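Lab meeting, item 3. Inverse folding demo.
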C-alpha cells in the first residue's frame, strides 16, 4: 500500500512539476511604451517632458522582468524553476540592455558635457542593475533591482519638476549615437553567436587594417567557430530577450529624439530598425529550437534570428554614421 501511495504521489508531483514548467516557460508580450508613459505619469503625477518616455520604458521593462508570469527565474534554485533555462536566458538578454541603458543615462543622456556632474539618483541606480543576476541569498537579486527602480523613479520625479533646473535629459544626436555604439556591439556579438550554431570557418581579422596593431597572444589564421550544441537554445533566447527590450527602448527614444531624427531625415530608417527587431519576436512554432544545416531539409531557427538581428544592426551602423555627421 505504501509503495502504491509513493508511486501515485510521484506521478502527481511529476505532472504538477511539468505543468508548472510549461506555464512558467513564457516570454512576455510587447507593450506600448508611450501608453505606459502616460499611465505612469498620471499615476505618479509626472509631467511628460524630454526623457520621460525613455526612463518610463526602462522602468516598465525592469518591472516586467521582475513581475512577469513566474516572477524572476534566474536565481531560483528549487524545482520546477531550476529546471527551466529558456526564460532565464531571455531574462539575461533583457538585463544586458537594461544595464547598458542605465549606464548611458548616467554617463551621457543626463549630462551636458564630460565635465558636468553626474546625477545622484542615476549614479545609485546604475551599479544596482549590475548586481549579480543569479544571487538568491540575501541580498537577493530582485531586491537590488527593485532598489534600482526606486532611484530611477526618483530621477523621473525630479526630471518632470520645473523647479529642478539641474536635472536634465539631453536629446542630442551625439547622445543617441553613443547609445547606438553599445547596441551595435551587443547585436553584432549575438548575430555571430547565432550564426555559429552550424559552425563556420572564419579568417582571423582581429588585426586587419592596422599594420602596427598587436594582441596579447598569437592566434590561428583560420578559426573554427561553433556554438556548443547544449548552448544553442541559450543563445537563441538571450537574443530574443535582448531584442524584446530594445524594441521598447527604441520606440521610447523615437518620441524623445523625434526632433533630432527629423532633422537628420532618419525617422523612417529608425522605424525600420524597430520593424526588423519586431520580427525576432514571432511565435516559435516548434517544441524546441531547431538546428538544421544551412541549406538542409530542416529549419535553423538561430540563422533566421541572426538574419533579422544582422539587418537591424546594419541599419543602426548606418544611422549612427548619419548622426555623427554635422
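The presenter then showed the designed sequence:
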Amino acid at each position: 500500500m505504501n509503495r502504491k501511495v509513493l508511486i501515485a504521489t510521484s506521478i502527481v508531483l511529476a505532472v504538477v512539476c511539468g505543468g508548472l514548467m510549461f506555464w512558467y516557460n513564457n516570454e512576455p508580450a510587447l507593450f506600448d511604451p508611450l501608453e505606459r508613459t502616460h499611465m505612469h505619469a498620471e499615476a505618479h503625477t509626472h509631467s511628460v517632458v524630454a526623457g520621460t518616455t525613455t526612463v518610463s520604458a526602462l522602468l516598465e521593462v525592469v518591472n516586467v522582468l521582475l513581475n512577469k508570469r513566474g516572477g524572476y527565474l534566474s536565481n531560483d534554485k528549487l524545482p520546477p524553476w531550476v529546471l527551466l533555462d529558456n526564460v532565464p536566458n531571455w531574462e539575461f538578454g533583457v538585463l544586458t540592455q537594461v544595464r547598458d541603458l542605465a549606464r548611458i543615462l548616467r554617463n551621457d543622456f543626463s549630462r551636458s558635457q564630460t565635465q558636468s556632474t553626474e546625477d545622484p539618483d542615476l549614479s545609485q541606480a546604475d551599479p544596482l542593475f549590475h548586481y549579480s543576476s543569479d544571487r538568491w541569498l540575501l541580498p537577493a537579486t530582485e531586491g537590488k533591482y527593485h532598489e534600482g527602480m526606486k532611484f530611477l523613479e526618483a530621477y523621473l520625479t525630479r526630471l518632470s519638476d520645473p523647479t529642478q533646473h539641474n536635472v536634465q535629459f539631453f536629446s542630442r544626436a551625439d547622445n543617441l549615437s553613443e547609445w547606438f555604439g553599445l547596441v551595435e556591439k551587443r547585436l553584432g556579438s549575438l548575430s555571430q553567436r547565432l550564426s555559429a550554431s552550424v559552425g563556420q570557418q572564419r579568417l582571423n581579422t582581429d588585426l586587419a587594417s592596422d599594420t602596427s596593431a598587436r594582441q596579447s597572444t598569437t592566434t590561428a589564421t583560420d578559426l573554427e567557430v561553433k556554438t556548443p550544441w547544449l548552448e544553442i537554445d541559450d543563445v537563441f533566447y538571450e537574443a530574443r530577450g535582448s531584442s524584446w527590450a530594445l524594441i521598447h527602448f527604441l520606440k521610447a527614444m523615437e518620441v524623445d529624439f523625434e526632433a533630432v531624427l527629423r532633422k537628420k531625415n532618419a525617422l523612417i530608417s529608425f522605424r525600420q530598425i524597430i520593424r526588423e527587431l519586431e520580427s525576432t519576436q514571432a511565435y516559435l512554432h516548434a517544441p524546441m529550437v531547431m538546428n538544421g544545416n544551412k541549406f538542409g531539409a530542416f529549419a535553423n531557427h538561430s540563422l533566421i534570428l541572426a538574419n533579422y538581428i544582422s539587418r537591424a544592426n546594419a541599419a543602426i551602423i548606418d544611422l549612427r554614421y548619419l548622426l555623427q555627421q554635422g
